[in-house]
Design brief:
Layout: E1 12-14, E2 17-20, H1 27-34, H2 37-42, H3 52-69, E3 74-79, E4 85-91, E5 105-111, H4 120-135, E6 140-146, H5 150-158, E7 162-173, E8 176-186
Parallel strand pairs: 5-6
Antiparallel strand pairs: 1-2, 2-3, 3-4, 4-5, 6-8, 7-8
Helix pairs in contact: 1-3, 4-5
Bound molecules: coenzyme A.
Coenzyme A is lined by residues 39, 42-43, 109-111, 116-122, 143, 145, 149-152, 154-155.
Protein name: Acyl-CoA N-acyltransferase
GO molecular function, one term: acyltransferase activity, transferring groups other than amino-acyl groups
Family: Belongs to the acetyltransferase family. RimJ subfamily.
Length: 188
């Protein structure tokens, strides 16, 4: 496990990965992973180029959100054995603001490209569902996915999320408004 002399207060294990808080020492891998164009293409907004300073701001932002909501909103995805950072996932803080009992909460995730295609994304959506429904008491989770992002749609469908609606011209990407698919799941 990465020892950055910081206690990891949150840890949950799913398949061969664990979700924890971010460590200062994650900064370089965050930059490496978020410099990948295919990750840029599929997320709403990321600074480009993505710098170490951006990574530091991101890690601090995760800590600030934890302070604000008194629970982890974003998680580092790590290899269970080595503790190495694999990616990030979490809940949409905009849905939580000023709302102690939100009707629906967005989820988001990215995984370093070299780790794609090993079932990690599917396990992460499973973990976010368990945390969101069972630990945080949310009644509905959703993800807004670009129409072209088949991998993300697949991992949601594998976790029994269903297509809810198409949001036309919903997100501006590279100066162009793009359609997204809202894919959601209601607590059983
Ligand atoms: C989406 C993402 C999280 C998936 O992670 P992952 O660990 O590769 O996911 P998994 O291995 O669990 O499953 C991916 C599935 O999508 C499939 N897939 C991926 N790209 C595909 C494509 N272009 N066409 C068809 N299927 C595709 C894989 O084959 C796999 O399906 P399978 O298990 O039936 O073979 C990862 O690709 C990523 O980080 N993308 C960039 C960021 C992003 O898109 N975030 C989500 C925004 S809504």
């Amino acid at each position: 496990m990465d020892s950055n002399n910081k206690t990891i207060e949150y840890s949950t294990t799913i398949s061969n990965i664990i979700l924890t808080e971010f460590l200062d020492s994650d900064d370089k891998l965050i930059v490496e992973y978020l410099s990948e164009p295919e990750i840029h293409k599929n997320l709403d907004y990321l600074p480009q180029p993505y710098t170490l300073n951006d990574a530091h701001n991101f890690i601090q932002w995760c800590r600030d959100l934890k302070q604000q909501f008194q629970k982890n909103i974003n998680f580092a995805i790590r290899d269970q054995n080595t503790g190495q950072l694999i990616g990030s996932c979490g809940f949409n803080e905009k849905d939580l603001k000023d709302n102690t009992n939100p009707t629906e909460v967005g989820i988001g995730y990215w995984i370093g490209k070299k780790h794609w295609g090993k079932g990690i994304g599917t396990a992460v959506v499973n973990a976010l569902s368990k945390i969101g429904f069972n630990e945080y008491g949310y009644s509905k989770l959703y993800a807004n996915v670009f129409e072209w992002n088949i991998g993300s749609q697949k991992i949601l469908f594998k976790n029994e999320f269903v297509k809810e609606k198409i949001l036309n011209n919903y997100v501006e990407k590279n100066g162009k408004l793009e359609n997204v698919i809202k894919i959601s799941k209601v607590k059983n």
